[in-house]
Amino acid sequence: MDLATEIAAERQELAAMLDDLPIAMWDGPTLCAGWRVREVAAHMSMGFRYPLPRMVFELVKARGGINRMTDRCARKDAATLSTAELVNALRDNAHHPWQPPVGGAAAALGHDVIHGLDITVALGIDRRIPEDRLRLLLSNVTARTLKFFRADLDDVQLRADDLDWSFGTGTPLVGAAQDLLLVAYGRRLPPGHLHGEARDRYVVA
């Protein structure tokens, strides 16, 4: 797999999806607690729009708290940038080489895929992640992934019903592979996506 090509394709597809959203949906909630579509879109493009010196400056302002920094910047940018500017920031930077501090290109792809799903799953948009991209991200799910994203999967086995993939041991949590990927990244999903005895722990109340 050519990761740079897949990242570019994911960003272009997400930009097209956002471009087609009715304006009211931009204020809809996402799977990222406290963020609307606007904040998620702003966050997704932050790495393209902020040069390193500004990133460092914002981190210092947040007293070294990366989550505080990204939350404040996402809210500020969502309030000042138009929907067209947010879409264009994603589309125009499809080939941007940005990567998270850890994880390389695969983590960059994961960042885009997960935040795209944060939007589409919450809004009820049936967007299916291409299987090659999905399998790559599933192969990178580890205990470290769960710890970083605070996903509590003690005594739970993720078991996909559309791909030959499972992770962990214990009480089965069954669903589409891309929905289980969200669970591994610490998300809770709307009702109807997950099945099995462990389901209630991972469904939005």
From TrEMBL:
It comes from the Bacteria. The keyword Isomerase applies. SUPFAM superfamilies: DinB/YfiT-like putative metalloenzymes. The keyword Iron does not apply. GO terms for molecular function: isomerase activity. Keywords: Isomerase. This is Maleylpyruvate isomerase family mycothiol-dependent enzyme.
